[in-house]
Each structure stands twice: as structure tokens, then as C-alpha cells.
User: Fold these one by one.
Assistant:
Number 1:
Amino acid sequence: MNRSLVVDVLFWCFAAGSVVTGFLVFRTDSMVRAAFWLLASFVGVGAILVLLAAEFLGVVLILMMAGEMLIMAVVMVMFMMNPAGLNPMFMVHQHRFAVAAGVVSFAGLSVVALTVDFPDQPVDPSVDATAELGFELLGDSMLVFQTAGVALLATMVGAIALASRNGRFGTADEGSHEPPLEIEELESP
Amino acid sequence: MGLSAVASRVATRAPVPVFPVAGLGARAAVDDLLVETRLRIVDTPAAANVLLLAGDVPSGLAAELARLHDGMSRPRTSLWWTLGASVRPAIRCPTEVRDPDPSILVDAVVDVHRRLLTGELASSYPQLPDEDAAPWRGIGPYGQGGTGMTGGVPYGRPMAEVAPDRDGLRLDQLTVRIGPFFARFPTGLVLELRLQGDVVQEAQLALPAGDVPMSGVATTPFGDALGVPVRVSVLEVERARSHLRSIASALVAHQLGSLAQRVLRLAGKVRPGDDHEIERLHRVLRRSQVLGWATTGVGHIAPERLEGTASGPILRASGVARDERADDPVYGGLGFEPIVHEGSDARARLAQRLAEARQALELAGRAGELDHDPESPLESPRGRLAAGDLPARRVLPLIPSLLEGMEWGDAVSTVVSLDLDTDEVLALHATDPKVSVP
Amino acid sequence: MAPGVAVVSVAVAMAIGVYAVAVIDGIAGRLVAGAGRRGVGVVLDPPRTVVLLLMQRRHRTERADAQGWALAPALLGGLAATGLAVVPVDRGTAVADPGTGFVVFATAIAFVMIAVFLHGWSPNSLFPLIGAYRYGAQALSLQIPFLLAMLATALPAESLAVMDIVEAQGDVWNVVRQPLGLPIYLMVGVGVGFWGPLNLPDGADLVGGTSAEDAGTDRLAWEVARAAMLFAIAAMGAAVFLGGWWGPLLPGPVWMALKTLCLLVVMVASRHLLARVRIEPFVVACWAVFIPLALVNIFVSGALLL
């Protein structure tokens, strides 16, 4: 079978899948389902990126979305206390504004899609696209970005530890104070 | 022979998934079924084909029993292992096994399962009518019984509420009932909980009232010892067995089912003077971390809260050397000294039982022909025992405040570490529906 | 590789892996239980139980999310297959060897939490729901140490392709080069396969957790998918830490199979040797101990390469 035909068919499948699942996000009445439909939509976009030979970007997009959507679903459920959408709820609010924003962004993206002259150069198979992408994005600043990344991670863990209610010396709202030093009394001989 | 016939013949040779319910006087026999390789004891009715009712399941639990039965998947059936009980269970059991020998029971279960799979025995019908838990049809804007986004009883079920969690966030809270057939708890123990995710925010005991026919209850040597002289060696071996069974159920709760089988096998065969076996077990438990990070600091009870409530290993695991045997001249002659552990947590209680099991086998080896005097105070494996003074009655009221703020996994470890006796919990149903909380 | 051949090879590998998990589990369980060698039960019980579960009817709960319930095991199995597909068996022999094979595997691992959450959410029942919430906390804490431990193995190869990572272990295996890596990987692997001491979503304290309402084919599919996941993790561990096909005398694929079996035995046997961990200290340990350790691992292996 012709390879480019396969790629074309796959592209249309993923594209249609992304659009349909994206639409379903707003049609379902359950927060968890909405989050998972959104995840499915992103997976479709990630797959399209892979088809565009941006393997790394596509796979990383899928990787990141898994965790993010799960957190979103859990947090929404726990705060909204409407498990499984037992009472129907709408995923769409501010209808007029939403419709207007949707139409405008659709028109804008359509104009871009129709007017821009997209490059049409197949990637040379001998090029390591992932490595090229890394140099293109970060260049010589790789070390700086990596250091910043680790520093940010440490900061996040530290911030959560500091913000937690249960501190080392009791709960925060009861005043988490370090106990005074106790000096052991020496036994008199 | 058709495909389905071949399939059912193969399937009949698989370990039979059984959900057991231990009634009065049946706990030890049911626990010991874990070692049977032809059965697979499962934790949830959905996974089981055979519901095994053992001993006397009180009629006060009839409604819960019917719900349990209806939670099983098909094909399903129930089997009653009488174990000396005379009152029939509340749900229909097409098969009864009167012999207390476990191997005969296993044969019967395997046979029932075979007949069930080949279609000789009909799968049982639901016990409860298919009706809504609360009226909801046609109520509310969508006819689903709800109001607004978070109100009403959609589809007949109450919705979660919000309440502050331990970090001060307002998150959802579920009000649930766990029991009376929760696989990790003694039969009849019901907890009403408010759960936030994994955390117990509030716990209450709910022991439904009901009559327990105390007749036909299998007696233990400790029950006999209240009235007649019993050999000290018999009592001490029984004590070691009871402690080992308690350790086995703790191992199951800590997901070490195969190690629990080993402990149960040991419990079945210990003889006076077998204390070195326990020594070896102690090393295995330490390595598996059951006597390590899995239980250290879990379920800590402040020693002052145990004053006047708990006795037995729970009290001695908090560092108090109180043991009725210490005042018994017979034990005094054997050189008995109470064992204590420090910590008063699940780890200390497990270690305490293990050490006492070892000590009991040692004492039994030395006791020879000595008898326990029925006039002397009696120390059961769960603490001081006297007529009408059951250890479980003293321990149960501690549970609600103990569980509050715990993760559910720790809550289960804690309840298991208290070693509540099923018979005693069921007996409380009969006499005292409301256990007073001090 | 032709698509048909690829699908069949992954399916066969998965079937062998799942059966291996069942048999190792049975043997380890009997050894620990002291049951002794009792006939052919260990070998025959898994297929018998499969047939029994096929005959058992599925269980339905009130207002369950039927699609989600059916999807969850399929998703988990698909993820195991994806992970397995990028593991090379011999030099130049892999079902798929994309340049980002490492990231594809990591993505499959990350998606496990979606499958488990869906599996616990769908039955609309208490214990599965608690299991689902719990796994959210567990899996999110596992992700970063897992990625960091695996990422370190890509450093010596200077590539994200799994084939290159194995190729770079000709002189010295990564398990020697990065002694911290394999223990972290195995610990996290057991957690991702929610097995034994880290089986918190389906734990004994939740009487089965997310699978508490499963019966028949639901239970079968879930158990099979989970075993396949464990197998995929063991195979990847053998490739990136134990030098994959490298080894004297025996042909490459045999070495690969032996090493996979080794890791599988360690992971599966943990179920019978170690108690269930407590979720709270475990999550704290993930963030406060394993992440720094995994970072140290990366820094050290990076420094050694300079």
C-alpha cells in the first residue's frame, strides 16, 4: 500500500477523532467524562504531530496530558461534589459569549489555514528530528534550562511542604511552633 | 461433547471462588479455609460463585445477608455449613453440610460448584425486590430526582456533601456504612463513616439490634474454663492458636495471603513446646515489614485511654504488666511472668501476640497435668474473661475516636490489630444495641 | 516489520508473559505458604481459572458507566502492548523502534493511571472509587522518579531510542553504571503494575478496590492486562538496565528472555514477601526521597560521562 495514502487516511481519522471528542467534551453531563473526552482529543492531536514527523512533541504531549487530565478530573469532582454528573450539569456557560468566541476563533484559524503557504518538505530519514528540535528550541542554553527545571521542581516540592497544614511541630492553625529546647537536668552526685 | 461441556469440565477443576460469612462459633473454622488449595477465598461477593454461611448467622442480619447474596455474580448458590448451629440462615441454602470436618466441606463446595457450572443446580434468584432506594422517578426538572446541581436524591441516592478536609479545603465527603460482612472485620461489626477520599473524618459504631440464639454456639476451652477445671496445657495451646489466627488475619489485611496460610498451618499443628517455630515466624514477619514500617505508629492508643477499658494483649502492648495469670498460683508455680511491649500501636500488639503465643507453647510444654481452677481469674487470649464480661465490649467503644483522621488502610490495620472476636461482637448485638462511648 | 506480524508477535509475547506471571506467582505463593510441591495445580490452575471466569457472568452495579468499565481493562492491555512493542529482543529486532521509544514507553506508563482511575470510577461503587482516588495520588508521585530513573539510562547512549540504549551497554551494563537506577525502576514498576506491596488501588483493605465489583470477563481482562503490564515493565527493565541481548555464549534473544524472567521473578515474588505499604508515608517518600535519589543518579551518571 502506498505509504503516503496510509498517512493521509490516518491523518483524517485522527483529525476527525479530535474534533468529535472535542465536541463531546461539551455534550456530556459528567465532569470525569468531559475530562477524558478532552484527553482523547489531545491524544488525537498528539498522533497528528507524530504523523508530521514531530515524534517527540507528539508523544510528550500525550504523556503530559495523561497526568493533567487526571488531576483536573479528581479536583473537579472533589470540589464540585457532583459525582458522575448524577444531576445533569452543563459544560457550557455564558452561551452568547462562548458562541461568539467560537465563531471568531474558527474564522481566524480558517483564514490562517487557507492563506498560509505551508512548507511541504518531507523530513530526511537520516536526520534525528528529536535532537534537531532540542538544538532549535534550546541551543546553547540547555544547561541553564535544565538547571532551572530541577530548581523549579525542588521549589514546588518545598512550596507544598511549607503550605501543608500539618507541619513538623503541629498543625498550622494551632500555631506550629518549635518546642523550646529542653535541658536535661544533671543528676546530682 | 460440545464446547460448553468441555469448558464447564475444565472450569470445575479451578479453585472455587467462595465468599465466607462466619457466624457464631465459626470464625476459626472459616479462617482455616484459607489454606485449602481447592478453594479461593475471595474478599467481595461479586467475585464469588458460592456463598458459604458458617455456623449461626443471626437473624438480625437478614436484610444485609440478602443484599450480600444479591451482590454475587451468576451462577451463584449458597451453602450452609452448620457447625452445630440449629437455626437456619435467613436466606435459602440449597445445600447443607453438617460435618465439621473441613475436608468434607471442601468436597461439598467443589461438588456444588460443579453442579452449578454444569447446570444441574439452578443459580439462585435475587432475594430482594428490584426497587429504588428512595423515590425519585418523575421528581425534579429532569425527572431524575435531583434539584439544582448538587441537591435532591438523583436516582434514589444521596449526593456527597462538602466539608473541610485536613488541609482546610472544602472537599466532598461520603457517608457510608461498612459491614457487617466486610471481609477484614469480624462479622457483625458495622461502622458508619464519613470518608474524604481515603481519610476517615468521622466514625461511629452501628450495631443493629437483633436476637442471637446463644444455644448451639461452639464452645471454646476458655468458655469451658469458666465452669469446670481445664488442663492448663489445653488452655495455653488454644491461646497460641488464637494469637496465631489473629496474626494470620493481620497478614491478610497487609496483603500477605500466602504467609497467612503458613501461619494458619502452624496454628493447626502446634503442640506444647513448639515455641521455636514461633521464633522462626518472628524473623519472617520482621523481614516482611509487618512488624516494621507497615504497622509502626499505626493505631496508637494512649495508655491512659486503656485504663479500665482494654485488657489482655492490647493493654500489655502499651507497657502495662497486667495479666490475670500472674495472680493464679498454678501459673505462679510454672514461673509465669507477664510479657509487655512498648508502643501501644499495631506493631506492638502484633509483636505482643507473637511473644505470648511463644510463651504459651512454652508454658504448655511445662504444665503437664496441671488444671486451671474455675474459681481463679481467667485470662483469655483477648483479655480478662468472666461471665457477662466480654473483652470486645470493653474494646469496641475505643474504635470510633481511634479511627478518626486515619487513612482507610491504617484504619483496617488498626481494627485488625485489636483482634475482636466475632462471637463476642455478635453477642453484643443481642444484649446491647448501643455500646456506650466513654 | 509487517503490521500483521507485529500484532501477532506482541500478542504472543503478552500471552507468554501473562502465563509466566501467573505461574511464578503460584510457585512463590506456595513456597512462602510452605504448601510444598502439590502436583500440577500451579501450572494448570491459571488456565482453569480463565475458563471459570469466562463462564462467570459479569456483575452490574446501579448506574454504572458501562463504557468506561469495559474500556479500562482494554486500555490497560493496550498500554502494556504499546510498552512491549518498543522493547528490542535482539540487535535490530524489535516490533517498533521509534527514535523516541523511551518516551513512548513512558507515555504508556503515564496512561496507566487513566486506566486505573476509569476502572475505579465506572462501577459507581464505594471501594472502587476510593481505590481510584488513591491510585491518583500514588501514580502521580511515582511518575517523576520513574521518568528520572529511566532517563538516566538514555544518557550513556545519547539517544531516546531503546535500541541505542541497549547498544550502548556493550562494555558495562547500566545496572553497574547506575546502581541506584534499577532499584528505583523496580519499585516504581511494582507500583505502576499495582502489584503486591504497592497494590493500593486494588488492595486487601479495600476488599479488591477498583476491581471489587468485577466478575467474569471484567475480572479476567483486568487481571490479564495487569500481568501484561508487569511483564512489559520487566522486559523494558531487562533492556535498559541489564543490557538486553548482551551476554556471552547464548544468543541474544535467550539472554533477553532470561533477564526479563529474572526481573519478573523479583517483582512478582514481592507480593509474597513484603507487606502493603502505607499510602501517606509512601507518597512522602516518593517526593522527598526517591526524586532526590533519582536526580543524584542522573547527576552522577552525567558526570561520569563528561
Number 2:
Amino acid sequence: MSQSKQAFIPIGPYHPLLEEPEYFKLYCDGEIVREVVWETGYNHRGIEKICESKTFEQVFYVVERICGICSTSHPFAYANAVESIPGIEVPVRAKFIRSIVGELERIHSHLLWVGLAGHFLGYNTVFMWAWKYREPILDMFEIITGNRNSYAMFTIGGVRRDINEAQCQQLEKILDQLKPKMDMLIGAVMDDPVIHARLKGVGILTAQDIKDYGAVGPTARASGVRIDVRRDDPYAAYDMIDWKVITAEAGDVFAKAEVRLLEILESIKIIRQCLQRLRKENGGDIRIKVKEIPPGVGIGHAEAPRGEVFHYVKSDGANRPVRHKVRAPSYTNIPTFRKSCVGQTISDAAIALAAVDPCYCCTERMAQVFDYSNGKPLFGGKELIRLSQKKTLDIQGKR
Amino acid sequence: MGLKEKVFKKSLWLFHLSAGSCNNCDIEILDCLTPRFDVERFGMKLVGSVRHADVILVTGIVTKKTKKRVLEIYKQAPKPVLVVAFGSCSCTGGIFAEGYNFEGPLDKVIPVDAYIPGCPPKPEAILAGIVKLLNK
């Protein structure tokens, strides 16, 4: 790599696309990105070590705080892992409640992605609308769990709170109001000519790339790879209800948006069925008492909004895990940047990086473009977003 | 009228810094901008660079790797600047206080003007916190 001619763009460590403060270096040849290098570890909090000092019950509240967006998926996978050691079968009612919380999380996470993707394209209307419709979902969480974000819903052998008849009615009412709005939003996003122009053919990942990098979740499904833990290894209530895996073939950013948007509708369908079953089988246990976890190794996985999340728990028969290992979906999805970003222009890099949904968190980016010959900054982070937004405006202008 | 009152009389511009957070607080901050809460009607706005900011909102614990960056960003901010420790993690360390990568709660690293506890604080708490900070 002849660095004298290539411009170097650091994105991060504080960058709006990323779940954690991470650091990406884009090496560019003029407008074209030639190489992506990343550096992680800013957000390392030592969670696995903390988990080893907590009891099995307490670990739920730690893993919930691995990621604020996936604060159901991690406890879900951890519960599957711990319950697989003694081989506990969770009560049916708890299975449905778990699925409801899991699917609500999927809806809120996908809406969050759609909104922020819109923001990076310069479509703040999409951002505002998507986040506006996310609020009823958070209200539903508040009804079920009492909190908007960290739910503290899961425990070993079941769930901690029941959903009663009155709450079921409230939830169904909110879903009834939400469905037409979702249809409208999805229609508006999928039919928009500017979004087509900006997203189609950008950041393409082929099915072979997905297999090479081991990508999971909507990133894989958008390239025609039909993997979904909910179907491949059913847990909770997913084998008791009718739903289908959403896939798309193109593998570009538009296909990823399409998969996520259609999954929202699928999740609404799952929640409705779960609520119906809850109302039909009124009463019943929501948890079984688990006295102790025998020595052994437990493996659990769950389909988070971003893909498969994997937990490994080792027990020596005491009241706390001796080893706890977590693998989050972004860990395998982030390396696909090397395929999706390389060869793109800088103004498409923002959306190509955003496409795998590496949990957005901050709204600012500390990115600067340096000229290698004299080391002076050329662009700031805002400049990059402005470039991306300008491209959209140009497309609009041409129409 | 002191310098602080003079500077902070009009719209506050916020800069959001995620030191080592789990995303929850960050999303709730963004949530404040969206139609239901809409803090922009009070003139509050998130800015992209700390050099434009009146208030720094810090979320999450300060880790070994981010400590240097937090100090650097605080140094870059135009003074006077208000620092808000946002969420349980930056107020006290919360659940991560016993971790080996923990470099102390935010007030051990930079001076803090207000604490908004909660995991995560609700958007209403954010608004209440900022209002209290201004009346301080």
C-alpha cells in the first residue's frame, strides 16, 4: 500500500454507527475506499469476569447491560445456556412471555435502524417517523416489564412477571394501532425513488461472502442465506406458532433494509399469536423453582435483532458460573466491512458501515480525513455526513 | 450576572460522549430529539463537535482505554462548560464498578456539574436534570 497517495480517514473512536466506541481506519484512493482496518476495545468492561463473581440469578442483570438494544437477547441466550445444564423445561406460559418480549425488542431495534439509516442518507423525516413509531413499543415494554429499556424479565426457569388479561388487551390495542402505521412507513420507505437510488447496489455481500465471514442475522438473510436460530434450533415458543423466515437475494443495503422492515411485520404476527395463546390458557405457572445448577457445561443461543447471540456457561456445582463466554452477532458481522466498503465511494461508506447495524449509540462522529503528504485534516466527521446527504440532494435534484 | 449565567442564558448545545456505555443511555438521549419529547423546542440540540458545546453528556463507565480520550475531549471544550454524568454507570460505576477495566466514575476523571442517575434515565429525567442544572 503506497501510503503517500492514499488518504486516511479515521472513523471513531466516537462514531454514531457503532455499538461501542470503535475505531475504523479507511484508506482511500481519491473517493474510493481501498482498505478498512478496525480497532476495538474502548468499551471493554470486563463483563465475563464480573459474571463469574455473581450468582446465576444475578448474572441476568449483568448480561442485560452488555448492550442496551439487545437487552432481551443476551438474557435469552444466557437462560437457554443455564437451563441446558440441568435440562429444565420452562413452563409454556413463560415461553410465550419470553417470545413476546423478544419480538418486541426486534421491532424496536429494527425501527431504530431504519430511522438512523434514514438520518445518514439525509432523510431526517424517516428518522423522526421511525422513532415516533418506536415509542408505542417502548410503552408496551413499560406495561409488561415496568421499564423502557432494561427489562429484568428473565430468570432461571421462567420469567419474573406475568402478563394478565387486562395487559393483553392493552397490548393488542396498541398493536392494532401500530399495524397500519407500520404498513405506511414500510410502503413509504420501500417505494421511495431516492432511497432506491442510494441503497440499491451499495455494499453488496454475496452468499459466498456471508459464508466466508460467518455473518449472521439480517445481514446473512439479505444475501439469500436462510439462517435463523428461531427456526434452525427452536427455543421458547417459536416452534408452537406460525411464522416464516424473511430473506432477500440482492445482498445490498436495500435488501438488508427490506429484510428488517418485513421482519417487523412478522414480529407483530408472532406477538399477536402469543397474546392469543396467553389469553386462551389463562393461568398457569410462569416459572419453576430451580434449586441448584449441577456441574456441567451449558450452551445457549438466541436470535437477536442483529443475528445469533451465543452464550457458554460452565458450572462446578456452586452457585456461580466458573466460566462465562459471550459471542455477540456484531462480532462476526463487522468483518464483512472489508467486503462491503472496499470499492465504494466515501459518501456511501457511512451507509455501508451502518448496513449491518452495529448498534448505533452516539450521534456524533469524530472522523477526520488527513492528507498523508502534510498530515493536515481535510474533512471532519460532519463533513462526511454532509457529503452523504448532499449526494441524496443531488439525486433528488436530477429527478 | 456571573459569567456562567451569561453564557448559558440562551439555547444549550449538547455534546454526547459515550465513554464505555451499553447504548441504553445513548438511545434515550437520541429519543429526546424525536417527536414525543422533542427537546429542540427548548433550543437544546446535539452537536457533532465538542468545540461547539455548552454541555457534555457523558454516558457509561470510564474504561482504561477511553480515559485518555475523555480527558482530551474535556480539554477541547470551550470553557465554561457543564459536565453531566448521565446514567448510573457514569455517576457511580453501577454494575461495572468491580470490573478490572474500570477507571473510576466520571467525577474521578473530570469535574462534574450534575448527576442524572437511572439505568437508563427516562427522557423526562433528562429534561428535569438539565433544567435543574440551569437553575443551579
